[in-house]
Structures are given as structure tokens and as C-alpha cells.
Amino acid sequence: MIRLLPTLAAAAALAIAAPAFAQHPAPPSGNSANLQGNDEQAWINDPHMHAWFELTRTAFAGGPAKIDVDGYEQKSFAIFRDFAPKMHMTPEGMVDHLKLIPRQVVQIVKDDPHVLDSYDNFVAATFGPR
């Protein structure tokens, strides 16, 4: 299965952390930190991510050859804008940081339609393995 490069998790982490990089130095070497507030599961469980999965399934309902990529991208951005305040981001800041993700998801689903078989598959493809 192909994963997003950058993964949704990495892009989302940047979306949250980018304005605060100057305020929050990187962890000391040897330590790791999740820039999503150490709670990636909160992103995965959020209704916005579930709505985005459903949007993706709907967009591909007619098959990969019939997807309206521009329409899917704009609807994804609407979800991202709505999600932004929960992550302490401006709506346009969130879209700016996640702007490549919808088209990457389109390619991932075209390469592996089973990504849409379940939310767990979608999460694995967009956030990386758990």
C-alpha cells in the first residue's frame, strides 16, 4: 500500500506546529514527540476525518475514472477549514498546510481501491500504520 508523502499525519503535524515552531523547540535527540499534541488518535477519531473518509468514498463511487478531482479537493478543503479551529489553526492556515493531501489521496485510491474498504484502511493509508 502506498502512503502519502508527506503522510496526512505529517502534514497535519505541520499544520498544527508550523506557527509554533519558534515557540516550541524540537525535543532533545533520542526523544520523539508527536506534534499533534501527542494525541494522533484524537485526529483519527475526530468526526471531520470520518466525514473526509465518507467524502472520499462518495467521490470514488463511480470509479476512479469518474472522480471530479477539483470538486473533491474543494470539498476536502471545506472539511479541513471546519476542522482547523479544533486544532487551534486558522481555516486558511490548515488548508495551506494540507493543500497537497486531497490529490495525493486520489492517487493512493487509484493505485489501491481497497483503501476505501474501511476507515481503518483509510487511516493506515493516510496516517501510516498503527
Task: Outline the structure in words.
The structure is a single chain. With 130 residues, the protein is mainly alpha-helical. The protein has one domain (8-18, 38-127). 55% of the residues lie in helices and 0% in strands. The protein is built from 7 helices and no strands. The protein has helices at 8-17, 40-45, 47-59, 69-83, 91-98, 101-111, 119-127. Helix 1 packs antiparallel against helix 5, helix 3 runs antiparallel to helix 4 and helix 4 (69-83) packs across helix 5. The radius of gyration is 15 Å and the shape is globular. The protein starts with 7 loop residues before the first helix and ends with a helix.
Helix and strand layout, with pairings?
Blueprint: H1 8-17, H2 40-45, H3 47-59, H4 69-83, H5 91-98, H6 101-111, H7 119-127
Give a brief outline of the structure:
With 130 residues, the chain is mainly α.
Helix content: 55-70%
* CA-based gyration radius: 15 Å
Termini separation comes to 14 Å
Structural class: mainly alpha
Q: How many separate helices?
A: 7
* Strands, total number: 0
Poorly predicted spans = 1-7, 9-37
Q: Let me know the largest β-sheet.
A: none
Q: If you average the pLDDT, what whole number results?
A: 79
Give me the strand/helix succession.
Answer: HHHHHHH
β-strand percent reads under 5%
Structurally, the number of domains stands at 1
Q: What best-fitting shape do the alpha-carbon axes yield?
A: globular
